[in-house]
Fold each of these.
Amino acid sequence: MFFLAFMGVSCLCGLAMGFFALESADLVRQEKDLKKKIKALAPVVQEIKTNEVRVREMTPRLTTLEGAQKKTSRWLSILDHFSRNLPPNTWLTAVRSNDSDPTRNVQLTLVGVSENQERVGEVLLRLQAIPDLLNVALKQTSEKTFGQSKGIEFEVIAEVAESAEEAPKKKATDSKEKA
């Protein structure tokens, strides 16, 4: 009986060893296959790393270009509104902008001529309707003579919405070095 039990356990151990040997051989084969795939994908991985570096280098440029595109479209919208919505017998003679402080909105100055004060008021109301302009205000008006006719010269100031840049953040290390 002891001998039969010994033979049964020995066969069982032999079968388990055979099973584990086959599994080990399969795992070694899988490892070799994976190493081949890694070698085959090494150029792709290197290209991905190179592209990631390029993207990091280009991100500031892309941000600048996107900002410029947004500002350009805002100005196009404002100028398009001027061209379509000025009252009759009203003309703009000068358009100036001032952005001496980049952390504040751009200040826009419009100088124009109209036939009467009512048209100047209408210009002011129409400019206030532009969503890209803030704090639209009449700075001055004066009566002018243009050859044989008289007109009202006006000056309007406004701020271009969302045109201020973020103030640069000071790093904590910079302030520690100065102290």
Note: The mean pLDDT is 87.
Amino acid sequence: MKKFYSFFIMLAVVLGAVSFVACDTNDPKENENQNNSSQKDDLQGKWVYQVSEAGYMYFEFNGTTFKFHEVGSMGGQVIDAWAGGSYVIVGNDLTLSFTDSNVDEMKANLSKLETHAVLDGNTIHYKGYDFVLQK
């Protein structure tokens, strides 16, 4: 009888230990989604590259969409041409999908725009330029 009780006590201990190990809820896909969501939060805002005194370029991220602006001054008038759409971020790589523009001539060439950028802390590297997050 003593052996019988010892067996059940040992069985309860083993099952208890296994149940703690089996309850791991760290799903890699869930962690990846949380990381991507966190990175999208980090992207929100305005990222600027100053071309000259008269012009600059900037990214504007809002939720899951973005706009890429080229701003310049010509004849005393400020011109702001933008193209935008949605984006996906995986790790530090941004894949941009351009779907709209405020300039008709640009709309016909959206598929020719560079679609890759790299997030590096407070800098986005795009087309050889470094865009810095403005706070």
Note: DSSP finds three helices and eight strands in the chain.
Amino acid sequence: MKILPFFILGLLSFHLHAQETTTSPFFTKAYLEFERDIKIPIKIEELTNTLIIWKENLGPNWQTEWPQFQETIFRLEKDQKATFADLNDLKDTMLIVQKTEVETVFKNRVMGDKKLGKKYNNLWDRIKDLAEERSRHETRIQFHSTGGLVLLDAAVHIVRSCDPNETRENREQAIKILENYKSMSSYPISDNLFGRAFFVDHLTRAHHWLNDSDPLFTKVYCGRSGKEFLEAVYGGENSNKISSLVAFARKRDSIVSLGWNAIQESEDPAIVAARELVILTRENRMLGEELDKKERILRNELGNAFFEIYGIEGDVCF
């Protein structure tokens, strides 16, 4: 029995809760760093700020005065605690040292073989490059979204319902969602205090993770802050009338019936934002599919390299 290969395979398969994905239970060092530095911190930031918004607006006696929200807040606190634990695991110096040592042993064995060294010459560089691409993509998919603003979500589905670049299925689904908005209430769409606060926080946090030149700021919101965008679609603080047509069922139906040209020509701030946001989310989806394809290729190469060195098949991917 080859003890070293089994020992290495065990380390490579070492599993943390923070590493759970739908694709693989294993990350290379580069992917552990992606989780540690990008994915998990974004989640912690969102959970922390969401809890602050809930508690500040409900008041210090929220547990007794607003018992109906206890379950929501306790769930967020539990998720926050677990996510902090994941981050602490990934900040464990010994874990990174261990991953580095294991990968170094494996890589040196590959590169020490003339034939395999030539075959897998730039494999680890490509894995690192892909992890960096994943990091950039992650920030975009996290923040190129509606931020939970219901009115903007309705605007996105108005655009998708007529966008010729969307699939027929997506257009039909968008129409159904717009019908659901109509059936849920006869009142205009109006995000409550929490929805608006979460949206402002979402856009504020986006500035920390994205460049100022990102199209989310320049094209979707046209340079507006979260509060300024809310004023544009809902009117000022003293306004008694919602500005955006998207809030009203009949106006939504009207612009959808007029079709794609009318949607493209609309100057309604919610429609303008939604047009650009739909483009970004579609681009991000396509890029995600491309990255998934690259990852499958690299996972296969890494597994093949491991087999060629140790003669063992295992889930030694990332």
Note: DSSP finds 15 helices and no strands in the chain.
Amino acid sequence: MSENYYEKYLELIRIQKLFKSVLALAAKDAFCCRFKTKKEKNNFNDAQEFFESFFDFELVCRLANVDCVEIKKIVQNTKIQQCQKYKEIMFLISQKNNKIII
């Protein structure tokens, strides 16, 4: 019986890692991109839309176990440079959370 719980726990950890990767890639595309190709420009536009959206962004943050309010504060702060926004978002994503929220 305990193996079943252990497997479910590991699955939740894998899901969190997957969605943290999604957030990290979106942050990279939105705030670190100096696009040279049309594809990079499209990725930039998509990432910007993602951070402006409500439902998709909140869902991904929830599945990644990351505070979406804190990330929104960073994204909307006009005093922070783009590359600094990326660094701060990556710091939030990389913080260790011991609790599983799903």
Note: The radius of gyration is 15 Å.
